[in-house]
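Dear support,

I submitted the protein below through the web form. The confirmation email said the job was done, but the results page showed an empty box. After a refresh the structure appeared. I'm attaching both so you can tell me whether what I see now is the final result or a partial one.
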Amino acid sequence: MKKINVIIFSICAFIFSSCGNGGSGQQAQEEKQVIVLPEAAIELQDQTMEDVLMQYLKVKNALTAAEASNAKTAADDLSNQLQDIEGCEEAARLANEIAQSDSLQAQREKFSILSDDLIALMKNADIKSGTIFVQYCPMANEGNGAYWMASQKDIRNPYYGEDMLECGEVKEELKSEN
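What the results page shows now:
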C-alpha cells in the first residue's frame, strides 16, 4: 500500500511540475492578460476632434489592460493634441498628469475627471458615422462611480481592468443625427 501511495504521489508531482514547465509565472501572466476589443470606426466632422477621441481611446485601452507605461505615452500624445483646442486647457493638464504618473491607480483617478471633460466635448462634436458609447461603473472612484467613452458597446472597464472587466453599463450613445 505504501508503494502505491508513493507511486501516486510521484505521478501527481510529475503532472503538476509538467503543467508549470518552469514558466509558471509567464503562464499566470497570460491568464491575467486583458483582451481589449478592437476599436469600431467612428468618424467625426472635425479631424482634430476625431484624433483626440482616438488618442483618448488608446489611454482607456491601456488603463483597461493595466499598462501604466502605455497609458503614459498615450496620455502625453493626448495632452499635446488637447493643447491645440481652445477651451481644453484643463483636459490637457489632466492628460499631462496621467502622462507624468507611474501609478496605475493615480492614472485611473485622473482619467475619471478627464473622461468627464472629454465626454462633454464629444457631446458637442458632429459625428459623421459610428457611435460613441458613454459607459459608467458605479463602483469606480471609491464607490462614487465614474464614466468613460468607448467605441464598442461591450464593457471593458478601465478603472478595474481584469479585476472587474465587465463591470459597468452603457448610459448614453452619441451618434450622427442624420
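Response: this is the final, complete result; the empty box was a page-load delay. The first strand starts at residue 43 and ends at 44.
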